[in-house]
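hiii, so i know i said id send this last week but things got crazy w the move. better late than never?? heres the sequnce for the chain we talked about at the cafe, plus the structure i predicted for it. fair warning i was half asleep when i ran it
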Amino acid sequence: MKNQSSRSLPFILLLLVMAFPALLGAQNQAEHILTASDTIEVKVYQEPDLDAKGTISKDGKVVLPLIGQVSVAGLTTDGAARLIAVKYQDGYLVKPNVTVAVAQYARLRFTILGEVTRPNSYYFPEGEKQITLLQAIGLSGGYTRGANQSKITIKRGNTIIKVDGSKLSDEGASAYPVLPGDVVTVGRSFL
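okay and structure toks below
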């Protein structure tokens, strides 16, 4: 008996190792805040006609059968499922069981302009919702010879953040995150 259990131990460990990434993915999806351009799958238990797949619009809504537009941006997948269940329960279904999963994450972008080697818009690395200012500058090929590293701005909506990039270190770079939609500008040296 002891010999049989010791032979099954590697098999059990293999199953656990294979299941662990899936469990992590499920946890990450539950924590993901839905945003415009995410594509989601909505499933209503035992109501296949109500199952839907849609991309969240710029105004944060997704269109679903019977209930139309539902604002889901800013919610987790669990929060969106609860909201959609309430909408279906309002005159359509009794205690609907709704699940929401992200079918495809939005490709998030930032723009970097001015005195960098390759000024352009760039996608964030897969799964990242922010990067450091130094990472953004690195993605754009680094500073040009004419760059004034002490004159960097990050435009976030209507807010402008001034940064002295000449004083940045790898450790301090996290104090200046670059977020989706940000526009980073590296100033020019006049010398």
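btw The chain has two domains: 31-104, 109-188. thought thatd interest u
miss u guys!!
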